[in-house]
Amino acid sequence: MAVADFVKSAGESFRVGWKIESNWTDPVLFATYQVIRPLASLLIVAFIVIIGASVGAAANSAFYTQYLAWLIVGNAFYAFVLQIMLGMAILVHVDRTRYEVLKNIYISPGTLHPYVIGRGLVSVVNGAVSVVLTLLFSVAIFNGLLHMNIPLNLLGVNLLMLIPVVILGIISLLAIGYMLCAVNIVSNRMEFILGDSVSGIFFLLGGVIFPVALLPWYVQPISNVLPITYLLNAVRESFGLLPTGSYMSDLAYLGLTTLVTLIVGITVFRLAEQRAKKLGLFDRKSEY
Amino acid sequence: MLPKATPREELLINLRAAYARMWVRLRGSNREVTGLVAEIGLPILTIGAYVILYRAIGLPPTAGAAVIIGGAMIAFWTNVLWNMSSQWFWERESGNLEMYLVAPVSRMSVLLGMAMGGSVNTSIRALGIVLLGIFVFQVPFQLADPLSIGLVFVLTLVALYTMGMLFASIFMLYGREAWNTANLLQEPVYFLSGAYFPRIYAPVVPFALQVAGSLIPMTIGLDAIRRLAIYGESIATIWPHILALIACTLILFPLARRALNYMESLGKKEGRLTLRWQ
């Protein structure tokens, strides 16, 4: 019964979240909005590589096309990070300060946790739409329009390899998003910084646009404990862009880091909840 | 009936309004140290990723320097989007917009104050980004003609913040669209302005892209600053940039004024100036 209630509350929260995020405009404009940002990010890095190729900076054209495929996949799946981090980092602020409903959600029996999860799932759906559209547009632009013959075969993706890592990756990102919500419950100064900070760290250290091995040696240990690093490695393996030999170890590390982030996320959230209740922070106003 | 103010009195009161709005912006943005640190440190994460990418594909260190300047200029664009364009939206949400509207000053003076405060604030952050970037990534700069760089920089800011005034007027009646539109104008503009490319006006960049990018004053100013500060060119080679920036300001300022009057009048007719939670 408790599970059914949780799922029902999360479902309702998802419905509300989806309406808030999507009904400000018509569906076509909303879909355009969903694809333009990740596509522009992709075009930035793609053009950097194209500029590199034009001055003949590295060995040969095969290097660039392979690198571009590697980069497209990493950048496309980074949309999950962006959507979840930015969406969940601002959630508490918006509901507490702008719409002033956080206190109502909190005093309804057992709704805060499924509410946060439901709203996080909206970001997951937005992220998934961005990933799919970015991949499709990438193939259309670079192979269809620019005839660059990038070795990216979307029909040849190994779904048995891809689906488990994406599910684990999403769980780990939601757990990190949970932590961001927790920080915002007890603070009213971080809401506009947290999401960008965490996604920026993942962009730099997670192997999104270059291999982790190119980072200075002293920051590589940080990369090696981030779930995003293993998520992107395993995703690229499922796309056939990396040798599949290390897939199982990437999956295992992803599972381990996901478990750790999940435990830490839930613990931090519960601590924040207790502190907020004690100090009366659930209805604190911070905009005047 | 109140006596009509003389032009001198009107000018003075508007200047005082601009100064007051600038003061609020300066004070509000700098009292929180975590915000200041984050606004300097966060761009370095993205800049760092691009500098490493440039190294990975074997481009020269000047490319890294170009990215650092691009990252610093992005700070201004972000400021224009979130602290100028969306500002009326925030003010309406927090219930301050009606106070601006009943104040006996031109709304343009309030926008001018925001722009002055925002440009000073962001200049401090941009300087931090450039210095930190040079320190961390050890990239080369050639500051042979700092006066010309300063001139182009100021002209770029004036044009950019005038564009911000125009956006603020257009965004005035937006509800959640303001938030989403500001979001939408981030990465696409980073791309079009060539903020992360060594050069936007290069043969490998499609001409249509260069034209689209040139509609944003930041693109023109950024290219001129890079030519002066990185590639060692002189002011003689960037005079078209200077003319283009002056033209941008001369076109955008009256447009901003007209747009503001129109949107305010529309808001009054439709009763949307005090509408919250749209």
Topology summary:
The complex is a heterodimer of chains A (288) and B (278).
Chain A: H1 2-22, H2 27-54, H3 61-98, H4 102-107, H5 112-145, H6 159-186, H7 194-205, H8 220-223, H9 227-238, H10 247-279
Chain B: H1 7-30, H2 33-56, H3 61-85, H4 87-93, H5 97-102, H6 107-137, H7 146-171, H8 176-184, H9 187-192, H10 207-214, H11 217-229, H12 239-270
Mean pLDDT of chain A: 89
Mean pLDDT of chain B: 88
Strand residue percentage of chain A? under 5%
Number of strands of chain B: 0
| Gyration radius of chain B, in Å | 20 Å
Coarse shape of chain B: globular
The low-confidence parts of chain B are none
Strand content of chain B: under 5%
Shape summary of chain A: globular
Oligomer: heterodimer
Structural class of chain A: mainly alpha
Structural category of chain B is mainly alpha
End-to-end span of chain A in angstroms? 42 Å
Task: Please report the total strand number of chain A as a whole number.
Answer: 0
Largest interface: A-B, 44 and 39 residues
**First-last Cα distance of chain B:** 37 Å
